[in-house]
Amino acid sequence: MKFAIIALRNLERHRRRTLLSLLVIAAGAVALILTGGFIRFSFDGLREAIIHGGLGHLELMPAATAGPAGPDRSAPPAWADWARVREAAESTPHVLAAGAAVYLTGMASKDDHSSAFVGVALEPARERRMNLEVKIRGGQNLSDAPPPVGEDEVLLGVSLAQSLGAAPGDVVTITAMTADGTLNALDARVRGLVTTGLQELDARLLKTHLATGERLLGTDRVSSIVIGLDDTARTQEVGDALALRLRSLSDDPLVITDWRTRAPFYGQVRALYSGIFWFLGGIVFVLVCLATSNTLLMSVLERVREFGTLLAIGTARGQVALMVVLEALWLGVMGALVGDGVAAALVIAINAAGIQMPPPPGAVAGFPLQLAVHPADFVAVVALMVVVLAVASIFPAVRTLRLRIVDALGHV
Amino acid sequence: MSKPSRRRRLAIGGAIAVTVLLSVRVRSADQALSNEELLRRTDLGALAPESFRSRMRLTAGDKPPLEVEVWRKGEARTLVRLLGPKERGKYLLRLGPVLWFLAPGAKKPVRLNPSYRLRGNATIDDVLGLQYARDYKVESATELEGGLVALDLTARGAGAIYPAVRYVIRPSTLRPVRAEYRVPSGKVATIVEFAQWSAGGRPYASRLLVRDALHGGATTAVDVLEVEPRAVPDALFDLADPSARQRLETAN
Amino acid sequence: MGPTANRSYPRRSARTRASDPGFAVSSRVLFQARNLRKRYRLGAVVIEALRGIDVEVARGEFVVVAGPSGSGKTSLLNLLGCLDEPDEGQVVFGGADLASLSAAEKTQLRRRQLGFVFQSFNLLPVLSAFENVEYPLWIDGIPRADRKRRAEDALAAVGLADRMRHRPDQLSGGERQRVSLARALVHEPLAILADEPTANLDSKTAAAIVDLLARMNAERGTTFLFATHDPAIVARAPRTIRLLDGMVAEGA
Description:
B: outer membrane lipoprotein receptor (LolB), chain A; 13-stranded antiparallel beta sheet; 15 strands; globular; C: 6-stranded mixed beta sheet; 4-stranded antiparallel beta sheet; disordered N terminus
């Protein structure tokens, strides 16, 4: 494709101008790669925080509890033959652990203070195996071993503890409706205080051992099973594998929900940030396009007589326009590759520098800035710049199509 | 939520509708009773014994039936003992306006909302009934089909649980058929139907149907299995000392 | 050197290609212009560059179009060379009325049947002499080996075989014009149109170029149409068409 070579040589004619265009394109490429890397890092962080903050990767529950509008967390635990299913889940590849969970609602009281709670009874040992984080703000986490009768323990949300006037070591009474529809009350020692990062949730949060929950509600049924995986990317795969196995395993039809469905918040944040990124991309697009379009146009206007000559000696108009477009595409590819190189160097440098970011809402400590950049990003940026420059070349190329040969030849 | 204590006291003072012993004779000939007199004669609450023990079964929805033993002394003190293997040691203790829940797993009693529903939508007041003649006055009387008379009652004082009640009675038998309890907005909140009467010397309503008129009409059936007028020891109502109650458990 | 002199130069053999738009190449007349008029707008003023010109050029002729600047030489050459369209009148080239050709056909005509030499050489600065010369063959799709041979021959014919790889900015004015001529010849056109090809050259080089043109004309029988206002060159021409104020003064 000799026109491509002519186009490249034309770029060499005005080194400084070409270099400037390359820099503009490279700058745009760097901006996109770095911003994209930061946003992806934020998504990764948020995703893992959601999952390891307690949601786990997947949740299994009987279809009856799942319901069309989402699970009914105030319904009494209804799942009887969950143990078999849990065993099957834990023998599935990539599953770290499958923890039974009983959803509790009721009242917690200490002396004259009482407050409603929405909580869960679970298995602390499995929670740990799944790398689910428990943010302790006082006292300790629940012990792994099921507490004997009369020695029940609870974790209280920080604000809940405050409203009850309870501290680690105090005894509170928890009251809840049993599976039979009567009340039950148990004394439990406050083993620790926890936080979710959201004050509204902390004001109602109560966590206890599965055995305590069973004792309180007078049943060994559970509400659901929460599953933690060794790799978030396998969520879909494991979900599908489980769905197949479970079809034959349980009497009640089961529903598997993944963390995404249970945290629509994540999708919303993602959509918001993606929107911001696309907006930035649009701005880069327009800026690079305007800057290079101007340069391309200048270069076309300077060569009007040349184009006239080419047309005079029998070059088709489309071929002349093609030369202009090819120049633009060369700029796009080369500029983007330069940008890729600069961006790669910056990413390595930033990630190694360990710049501290301020703590996000709910956290105490900050975290080191890391950019999560994939190889595909570099390729995508090249493709994008090719498109940008193709668009930038439209107007200059059209200008050549409209040249009158005689006027062009007479152009100085 | 929390109701004025005076109203509580007055309301609780009513005897169990189902344990009322009617000392009423049917006066077939004399229909010229005044409305107030009609009310007085059919007031189940007023005609219940001062202290008694009773056993009841409450059934609602898909939950298993709840059997309870009720010990009552005067208007202000009621002990509801939950029966059944899983419910051993659980009590609801009403002292005046305050309702406590006692459970073997908790050292201290837990304070409950006085409108706590025993089973389904039936509160203790719905089950134990109101003191109609004492706490309400008759605004009007309407004749209904089938020989019934509807007495529209309004509360005498601010202490009544329900500001207005429609008390439907059958004058020929001097028995109440149903009571419709209204909330301040005028809507009917609960309808208690006196479905069956016990046989024998002092008949009492042996089956009540308590219907939630505000939320879809779910019904709780209350079957009164026995009523035993007797002296009730004060110790049963001692919040701090559970020993008398513990003896109840070992005795049965 | 009148218009009738030097008619016995060798003719080019008739050559047709299937794709050529119906050229009657056996016709003796190559260019035929009738009543050509061309106007230009210069701001608010309209200038008549050509005011009714009739011209005939036979195959193999070496014609010089002379006249002072503003006489319409360039305009005439542009119209004959299919670079522009007349406002009135007709141009027939090789028997084909140019007005009847589509834009694509005109482009093809210029590519294959015509060659152009410009006053400012108009070479592509990014291509070497060789690449500039092979350019018309390349855009016509001639295969590589063929192109190479013909371009080398053309450069040799103009005496620049040893400067093939040089870029225009490494060549003198005279050398550039030779390259330009080689480019105009390489595809063996029926006619070459040159607008003031010696204007930017010194007299010695100019004379050398004119010699070259004359030799090409003699050797290959290519028709030459040559616009100039240089009297020294006009004096050497076998035939001269003089223009004055847009009309033929003599020699049509």
